[in-house]
Design a protein that fits this description.
- About 70% of the residues lie in helices and about 0% in strands.
- Helix 2 packs across helix 4.
- The longest helix has 27 residues.
- The chain has 8 helices and no strands.
- The chain has 2 domains: about 80 residues, Rna Polymerase Sigma Factor, Chain: A (Orthogonal Bundle); about 70 residues, Arc Repressor Mutant, subunit A.
- The radius of gyration is 19 Å and the shape is elongated.
- The N and C termini lie far apart (about 50 Å).
- By secondary structure, the protein is mostly helical.
């Protein structure tokens, strides 16, 4: 059955079609939820909430643009809503340089390590970093999504990059000294 037909069936609350949509996209959306969650359990909760919202709002999808993109926006908004409710996103303005350059020896750093240090960022920095760097949102869009000023978005991105740079440099120093 085509994706178009599955979506049409989901609009009629067809459970089998909902299950197929879930199995088609759960892996990708879970990976996305992991980027915006502190723990795997939190990511699973966000994924579940995202799919509830997707199936409740699927009638609003008009077959314009990517269905997967539409679902990704819902998953991101679901994760961000979790943080808004926890009041974690009360961000502080910081005066930091706009751009922090991070030099990475790609052969020395594993993807697992990079994902780990991104997940270790404080929520406010991780959210902005993920939205800007990994998902391609502009600072204007981030400010609207998170309810913060564009300058706050920029300073939090800069701070995230600075923290990542420090962790990467420390890791590289330990490797060169044979401590890892």
């Amino acid at each position: 059955m085509s994706l178009h037909q599955l979506i049409k069936n989901c609009k009629k609350n067809d459970i089998k079609s909902q299950s197929q949509i879930y199995h088609l996209f759960a892996g990708k959306l879970f990976a996305l939820c992991l980027k915006y969650s502190r723990t795997q359990q939190e990511a699973e909760d966000n994924l579940q909430e995202a799919f509830i919202t997707i199936f409740n709002k699927i009638g609003q999808y008009q077959f314009k643009g990517s269905f997967e993109g539409w679902m990704k926006r819902i998953a991101i908004n679901t994760a961000l809503q979790t943080y808004r409710q926890k009041n974690v996103l009360n961000l502080v303005e910081e005066n930091l340089p706009d751009e922090v350059e991070v030099e990475i020896d790609e052969e020395e750093l594993s993807l697992d390590y990079l994902l780990k240090i991104v997940q270790e960022l404080p929520e406010r920095y991780r959210m902005v970093f993920n939205l800007y760097v990994l998902d391609g949102y502009s600072h204007k869009e981030i400010s609207e999504l998170l309810g913060i000023a564009e300058g706050t978005s920029k300073s939090n991105l800069s701070r995230a990059r600075l923290i990542l740079k420090e962790k990467i440099e420390k890791n590289q120093q330990h490797q060169s000294l044979g401590l890892l």
